[in-house]
Amino acid sequence: MAQTKSKNSKKIIKSLKLNGKNRYIVVALIFALVGGIYYVYRSFAATTVATIEAENMTFAATGPVVVSDSAAGSGKAVKLTSNVAITGTFTSQIEATSISVRAKGTVCGSAPQVTVSVDGKSVLTATVSATSYTNYKVTTPIPAGSHTVKTVFSNPYKTRKCTRTLYVDSVSAINDNVSPVTADTTVPSVSITSPGSAATVSGVTNVTANATDNVAVSKIDFFVDNVLKSTVTASPYNYSWDTIAMVNGNHTLYAIAYDAAGNKTQSSTTTVNVSNVTTADPVPYNVSGNWTLKFGDDFNGTKLDLTKWRPNWLAGTDTAITKPINSAEVSCFDPSQVSVGGGLLTISAVTRPCLANN
Amino acid sequence: MWIAPGTGAGQNWPAFWADGTGTWPTTGELDVMELLGGNLCYHFHSPAGGPGGCDKTIPATGWHTFGANWQPGVVTYYYDGKQVGQISSNITSSPMFLIANLGLSPTSGTPPVVTPSSTQVDYIRVWQ
């Protein structure tokens, strides 16, 4: 019974230890979560204008050591155990408003301390208590241009049991007032919503499209049989398609959506059947009866239809000029005075010598 | 058919008519419209004469539709869908050809001669 009690006590103690560890982990997670929110926010609002990887900086041959570290920005960091400066130069196209050093440390007695100077002026001193890479940042104005940055491990310490160590991953200049510019490479999506595929359409048909984009749709081009027919720059994306002039039968529709960044997407093609009722032959104007059109000319061409007409007065050829046909007239009939265009036959008279050749 | 405006009612001698394919006037002449004295006029010529008339209710200038219903023994004339005349004697039945023309005459049609001048036609149709 006592042995059992002792085992139970050990279980309880073990459980308490676990509980204590769990509480610590929970607290740490909350801290990390708050910190995470802070850095996500900062990274959204700010733009890194320049970064120097520590391993690319200049330092003494002895002391600093470049180490491989998958957690480091470029897979490498500089390990410092002595008070040796590492120096580098960065150039920024725009001004920076703060400087940040990404570092982690090994505590020995106390945490390592890092100082950062820009152009000889100390701007940042941080105690690197984090054992994983963390950004230590300070607000300081840095104009655009080339600058020298120096990082120093200012409190090296070593005992028989431990060595205070500073790992520097990189130093960055940041502009906190400029949001990062991210190229929009997301293409819009677009589809023809009406008419549906294989629909039968006639007359003036409303063609509608739906388009979306991660930023905004700038315009939609509507195509009929691969020919651009309409451009719409704002929703709703509609095109009134007059099918009267189309040949009855299948025709294709598609739309191309664009965004301001020039990304574009072509919708799938919708094939529709145009079916317009053929207009019946016209009938005599207000003359009753059952009529069948036997002859007609709407003068829709570009020249007189010589299969139907003579351009002069029974002349031998269609280029001959006919003299006045009776004593009352002074007019010759010249084919050059007859024209067809714009849906009309035009017969014009001018004054000039009548060079009749008939 | 478009009749050009003149100083008064139209100018020159535009006409839309049909003429027999044989000897004139034996094979007939059907004048659907000719501008005479500034008026829209119709006639039918045959060996017996050339009866006809002019409509003075329709302004002569501008666009008009001129038609004639040529039936055996009778021709009815329509201007802008309105019956303006009918001739029922000495109507020939020989084939005719259609003519649209713009004549110039110092004495006939609608003098004086005006140039430049033109007439236009939107369509010409024949039904049976």
Features:
heterodimer, A: 358 residues, mainly beta, 6-stranded mixed sheet, B: 128 residues, 5-stranded antiparallel sheet, 3-stranded antiparallel sheet, 0% helix, globular
Describe this protein's structure:
The complex is a heterodimer of chains A (358) and B (128). Chain A has 358 residues and is mainly β. Chain A is elongated. Chain A is built from 1 helix and 23 strands. In chain A, strand 18 and strand 19 form a beta hairpin. Chain B is mainly β. Helix content of chain B is 0%, strand content 52%. Chain B has no helices and 12 strands. The radius of gyration of chain B is 14 Å and the shape is globular. The chains are: A mainly beta (358), B mainly beta (128). At the A-B interface, strand 21 and strand 23 of A face strand 10, strand 11 and strand 12 of B. Strand 23 of chain A pairs antiparallel with strand 11 (117-121) of chain B.
Mean model confidence by pLDDT of chain A: 83
Largest interface: A-B, 31 and 35 residues
What is the overall number of helices of chain A?
Answer: 1
Percentage beta strand of chain B: over 45%
Label the structural class of chain A: mainly beta
> Which spans of chain A have pLDDT < 50 for at least 5 consecutive residues?
1-44
Q: Strand order within the widest sheet of chain B? A: 5-4-3-2-10
Instruction: Extract low-pLDDT stretches of chain B.
Output: none
Cα Rg of chain B: 14 Å
How many strand units of chain A? 23
Terminal Cα span of chain A:
145 Å
* End-to-end CA span of chain B: 21 Å
| H and E order of chain B | EEEEEEEEEEEE
SSE run of chain A: HEEEEEEEEEEEEEEEEEEEEEEE
Apparent shape of chain B: globular
Q: Main sheet of chain B, how many strands, which sense, barrel?
A: 5 strands, antiparallel
SSE order and pairing:
The complex is a heterodimer of chains A (358) and B (128).
Chain A lengths: L1 H44 L1 E7 L4 E2 L5 E4 L7 E5 L4 E8 L3 E11 L6 E6 L2 E7 L6 E9 L2 E9 L11 E11 L13 E6 L5 E2 L2 E9 L4 E8 L2 E6 L4 E6 L6 E11 L4 E3 L3 E5 L18 E5 L40 E4 L2 E6 L9
Parallel strand pairs in A: 13-20
Antiparallel strand pairs in A: 1-11, 2-5, 3-4, 4-11, 5-10, 6-9, 6-11, 7-8, 7-10, 12-14, 14-17, 15-16, 15-18, 18-19, 18-20, 22-23
Chain B lengths: L1 E2 L9 E8 L8 E8 L2 E7 L6 E4 L6 E2 L2 E6 L2 E6 L2 E6 L8 E8 L13 E5 L2 E4 L1
Antiparallel strand pairs in B: 1-6, 2-3, 2-10, 3-4, 4-5, 7-8, 8-9
